[in-house]
Task: inverse folding
């Protein structure tokens, strides 16, 4: 029998008076927080501001000890069996290296409980790590590698010098033969040539002996080093096998409930996805923890929300106290199971935001067409929505295939050039690839920035756990460069021109929002900032060489914000 839930925080009746209950559960991957989740989040944030006992450095207090790690927190508005309203609180991952903290629901599986199989195996893995480290730092091993490097360099130097000497001596003997052939008798020349051949054979033997000496010496050192290498590799293989087995065991221990009481392991959930196996830290996010606790304790989930607390990570866009959707890579497969049969808000991403909006034709000839795409209209058909610039132009061309050269994000408005012939497509596409096309965007930033102009260079790659979001990544990211110039400052916003030198996905949005960029999200950016009536980003100017006339053509479309 499940006892009364200890981690529920009940709302004071006066704080929620007159607020209607949610009609449907929150769609976790795109939502506006319900008023009840906003109240819950404010209460939790107040607790975090005044609770020093968590022992976690969120990066909000100067000179606080410990590694700075901001965290995603979640709240779940629930109704108990008596109909009383409250909320549950959770954090993603761990706080101060611990799973259990007062006020917060426990993890789906606590790998840190005393004498757990995880900790036992972790001790073994740590022991293997220590052995690998000891071998890699062994003085004899380090000395052998240094000696090998010195020997190899000396061998290469001496053998190269010997080769050069052999060649020089060979050329000298050739010259001597030429000089002697006309001045001595045939018998004398034969004897002289035999002596030169003898010298040549002697030099080759000396060279071979030199090569053999260095080969034997280097092989001896390689053999001694390989004894260490083999031990290190054996330990690494053992660690790899044990780590894989431990991870598999963990995947089976994480078992998720839904409203019907049906359980499903992490491994079973992700075996049905294209990945085939769970990503790292799957099941540790806030929303699955919250739902698990609710289902275990007979609580009815009504609405959820997640917010970021603390300093942002270096790679992602995260703003203190701002609400964010659940992640797609780790949470979407889990929540598909956990929310089975629960009536949810409509997925806004299935709604055609471009419906009823006009696609303006700015210019058209026999080679290409330039259009002014409205915000929320797709450039090309999507998985669920076919209405797009492509489909509308195909209708306009009477079924002739439009040839897409470049794209704009669905939320971005502005100029697009689309080819009507293969020749025009190839010609203009080559200009895009060579970066000779001039593109200028206008944006409204959510803050007043100080710089008047400049250049941003932050490499980008897709967030594999949370598509389509992008990450700043100096190791694997692709080069992304944006030039900018401020054209107007208002009381709380900045109007700006962007010239993207490269054309990465979400480049202007990331370079605006990231703290190492302008640290000012574009107004209405629901991925990296705060939602509004639209994303205030517009492709206002486009200039390239006409594929037939060879003349520069320029097009403009003013922004409507």
Result:
């Amino acid at each position: 029998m499940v006892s009364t839930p200890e981690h529920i925080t009940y709302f004071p009746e006066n704080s929620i008076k007159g607020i209607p209950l949610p009609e449907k559960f929150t769609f976790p991957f795109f939502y506006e927080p319900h008023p009840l989740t906003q109240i819950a989040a404010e209460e939790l944030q107040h607790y975090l501001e005044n609770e020093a006992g968590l022992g976690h450095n969120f990066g909000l207090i100067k000179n606080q000890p410990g590694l700075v790690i901001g965290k995603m927190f979640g709240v779940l508005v629930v109704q108990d069996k008596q109909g009383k309203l409250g909320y549950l609180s959770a954090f993603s991952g761990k706080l101060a290296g611990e799973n259990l903290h007062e006020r917060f629901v426990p993890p789906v599986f606590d790998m840190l409980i005393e004498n757990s199989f995880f900790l036992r195996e972790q001790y073994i893995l740590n022991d293997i790590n220590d052995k690998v480290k000891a071998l890699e730092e062994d003085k004899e091993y380090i000395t052998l590698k240094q000696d090998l490097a010195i020997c190899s360099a000396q061998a290469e130097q001496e053998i190269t010098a010997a080769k050069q000497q052999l060649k020089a001596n060979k050329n000298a003997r050739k010259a001597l033969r030429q000089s002697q052939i006309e001045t001595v008798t045939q018998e004398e020349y034969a004897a002289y040539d035999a002596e030169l051949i003898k010298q040549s054979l002697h030099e080759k033997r000396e060279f071979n002996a030199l090569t053999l000496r260095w080969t034997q010496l280097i092989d001896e050192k390689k053999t001694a080093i390989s004894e260490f290498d083999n031990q290190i590799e054996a330990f690494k293989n053992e660690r790899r096998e044990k780590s894989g087995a431990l991870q598999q065991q963990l995947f089976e221990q994480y078992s998720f409930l839904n409203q019907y009481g049906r359980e499903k392991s992490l491994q079973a959930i992700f075996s049905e996805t294209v990945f085939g196996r769970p990503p790292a830290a799957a099941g540790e996010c806030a929303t699955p923890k919250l739902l698990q606790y609710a289902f275990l304790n007979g609580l009815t989930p009504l609405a959820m929300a997640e917010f970021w607390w603390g300093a942002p990570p270096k790679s992602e866009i995260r703003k203190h106290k701002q609400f964010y959707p659940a992640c797609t890579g780790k949470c979407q497969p889990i929540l598909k199971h956990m929310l089975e049969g629960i009536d949810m808000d409509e997925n806004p991403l299935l709604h055609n935001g471009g419906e009823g909006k006009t696609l303006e034709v700015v210019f058209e000839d026999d080679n290409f067409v330039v259009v002014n795409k409205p915000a929320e209209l797709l450039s090309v058909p999507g998985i669920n929505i076919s209405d797009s610039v492509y489909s509308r132009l195909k209708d306009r061309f009477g079924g002739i295939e439009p040839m897409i050269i470049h794209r704009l994000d669905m939320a971005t408005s502005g100029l697009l050039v689309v080819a009507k012939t293969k020749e025009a497509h190839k010609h203009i596409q080559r200009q895009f690839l060579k970066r000779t096309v001039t593109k200028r965007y206008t944006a409204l930033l959510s803050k007043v920035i100080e710089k008047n102009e400049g250049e941003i260079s932050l490499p980008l790659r897709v967030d594999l756990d949370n598509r389509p979001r992008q990450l700043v990544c100096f190791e694997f990211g692709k080069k992304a460069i944006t030039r900018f110039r401020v054209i107007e400052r208002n009381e709380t916003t900045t109007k700006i021109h962007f010239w993207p030198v490269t054309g990465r996905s979400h480049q202007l949005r990331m370079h605006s929002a990231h703290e190492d960029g302008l640290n000012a999200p574009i107004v209405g950016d629901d991925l990296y900032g705060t939602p509004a009536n639209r994303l205030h980003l517009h492709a206002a100017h486009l200039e390239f060489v006409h594929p037939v006339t060879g003349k520069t053509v320029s097009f403009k479309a003013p922004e409507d914000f």
About this structure: DSSP finds ten helices and 19 strands in the chain. The first strand starts at residue 9 and ends at 10. The CA atoms of residues 50 and 199 lie 91 Å apart. The chain has a mean pLDDT of 92.
